[in-house]
Amino acid sequence: MDSRGPVKLQAIDKQTRAAMVETMASPISRRRFVESALLASAAVPLTLNAQGDSSPATTALGGATAASKEALPHGKIGHQEFSRLMMGGNLIAGCSHSRDLNYVSTLMRRYNTPAKIRETLELGEHHGITAINTYVLDDNQQIFDHWKCGGKMKWVAQARMDGGGGFSQIQKAIDDGASAIHLTADAAEGLLDQGKLDKIAEAMQFIKAQKRVAGVAGHDLRALVACEKAKVDVDFYQKTFHSHDYFSAQRPEDPGPVGANDNSWCKDPQAVVDFMATVKKPWVAFKVLAAGALQPRAAFPYAFNSGADFILVGMFDWQIEEDAKLANRVLAVVAGPNSKRSRPWCG
């Protein structure tokens, strides 16, 4: 015992107390330490896999009934419903946007093993999140394995034109089971710069003909404005949106929508608010945390009060529960009688 005196166990349930007593009374391996720590925290009842196991995770959540899952408010995009908080895929793929911290992407990929990704998907679903957004050419095997084991997480796929300007990436997303597909921001803005707005419209028609929800993403507003002006048949827009309330935010003189140092993704948030107020299609706001520079407790209400219908947030497994509960609280206020929301809900 240390100077703080004996550990008090009387307020802990019998199963947890027994596990802690056994842990203190015997030598402990790294794996047993992790198991005991998770049991003591009792945040979510997960059964851990062996270290380095690349097979699908086996968890207690996999057998959870729908009634045992937590709920999040939903909205409709096209003919489908999605939770208003969605999971981003960058943390799983290792796209960290970590400025000049070059090791962070590797660290993220090392942490998010196949088993951890499966665990993350199951945690998200347990806490009411119904969709994850990833690039179609990333390794999405864990999403597919999640489905094979009964998971219901919907997949919103990012896609670009292929080298010949064709729709092979979109077709792959359709074949692999995506519920919704959107052109990435760089793809849409690149087509616009080439004078190929008609190609964006054609892509939307192709997606919708396959009974999938179709969207266009943007880092700046150009592609979205052009689509609205041309009345392109889009189901939803996905637009970067965050405040500049962080020390490394883009300066006015920095070029491009992401700044000279990959440090900003929404150059003019007020312009986004003003434009989206004129749009009657669902808006999925992404990069709402400015790639981790903003706290969710500030970023979530900022996005929803400013008119976003859905927010797309990259989350590690240990952030999901807190973020889901926060989104629930924020949405209850934003949808309530004292709402400060500046735009009617679309979807």
Q: How would you portray this structure in words?
A:
This protein is an alpha/beta fold. 38% of the residues lie in helices and 13% in strands. The strands form two sheets. Strands 3-4-5-6-7-8-9-10 form an eight-stranded parallel barrel, surrounded by six helices. The protein has a two-stranded antiparallel ribbon with strand order 1-2. Helix 5 packs parallel to helix 13. The longest helix has 18 residues. The N terminus is likely disordered.
* Protein structure class: alpha/beta
Poorly predicted regions are 1-60, 62-67
Biggest sheet details: 8 strands, parallel, barrel
The sequence of SSEs as H and E is: HHEEEHHHEHEHEHHEHEHEHEH
Rg estimate, integer Å: 22 Å
Counting DSSP H or I runs of 4 or more residues, the number of helices is 13
Quaternary state of the chains:
single chain
- Mean pLDDT across all residues, rounded? 81
Distance, first to last CA: 57 Å
Q: Name the overall outline.
A: globular
Tell me the total number of β-strands: 10
How are strands sequenced across the largest beta sheet? 3-4-5-6-7-8-9-10
Residue share in helices?
A: 25-40%
Strand content: 5-15%
Fold blueprint:
Layout (H helix, E strand, L loop, with lengths): L13 H12 L4 H12 L32 E4 L2 E4 L1 E4 L1 H4 L10 H8 L2 H13 L4 E5 L5 H8 L5 E6 L8 H9 L3 E4 L1 H9 L3 H13 L3 E6 L3 H8 L6 E5 L28 H8 L6 E4 L9 H10 L4 E4 L3 H18 L13
Parallel strand pairs: 3-4, 3-10, 4-5, 5-6, 6-7, 7-8, 8-9, 9-10
Antiparallel strand pairs: 1-2
Helix pairs in contact: 1-2, 5-6, 5-13, 12-13
